[in-house]
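Subject — a protein and its fold
Fields — amino acid sequence, structure tokens
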Amino acid sequence: MGYETILYDVKDRIATVTLNRPEQMNTWNDTVATEVYDAMQAAGADRGVRVIVFTGAGKAFCAGGDIHSFGGDPNALMTKLPRPFDMRKRADWQTRCSYYPAIPKPVIAMLNGATVGIGLIHALFCDIRFAAADATITTAFARRGLTAEYGMAWILSHHVGHARALDLLLSARKIKGGEAERMGLVNRAFPSSTLADETYAYARDLAENCSPRSMRIMKAQLWEVPFQTPHEAIMSAGLDMPIANQCADYQEGIASFLEKRKPNFTDD
């Protein structure tokens, strides 16, 4: 794949999408947006991929928007999508930043360094976030005269609650990975020296030991929760259960448990 601003690699059934503008601290522009979307869709469609890791090259995950791309028509940014609209999918997961929930595989954001503004938005729409303990994380917008962009207010409050979201948005203060873990902004914070090892160990465990079908359905179930009543969630789960009980992955999960061996899931 001939990308200009990212790297794409698949190994051990894990696709890695790496923002690759280290001299610019992996700042975000339209080319980055289009290429990341394309790579995520490719990984989502590849049966040889079971987990996706999203990270940055160099010292930053993504230090916000590329200031050299600012100044265009702000209304155009809201309608300029790097993809066609799909009527079969929830509209909420088809915007410039919010498409990760629609990808049928776990997406792990590995925040190796500065995660700022739009970079933080993309990380928040991923499924899992692991951060370096010394990574700097900030919403940034209030200190640039901007507002909470691309659904940041919704997704931030979804993860950390109303009060903490207001704190992080209004002050735009910088926090480190350890504080981000304590408030639930990231799942875990690791020393920077072990972040990659810990992230890929987790990703390999999912790829090797967890049913792709199970992960796909559970991911979809969790991202539907904000739109459901408890009864609707229970009804939806009730429809999935009898299908899961008849699928090949369920039979393999039981057999591998009884035979005390690694499972050989096929996503069937």
User: Anything to note?
Assistant: Residues 30-45 form the longest helix (16 residues). Residues 6-206 form a domain with the 2-enoyl-CoA Hydratase; Chain A, domain 1 fold (CATH 3.90.226.10). The radius of gyration is 19 Å. DSSP finds ten helices and ten strands in the chain.
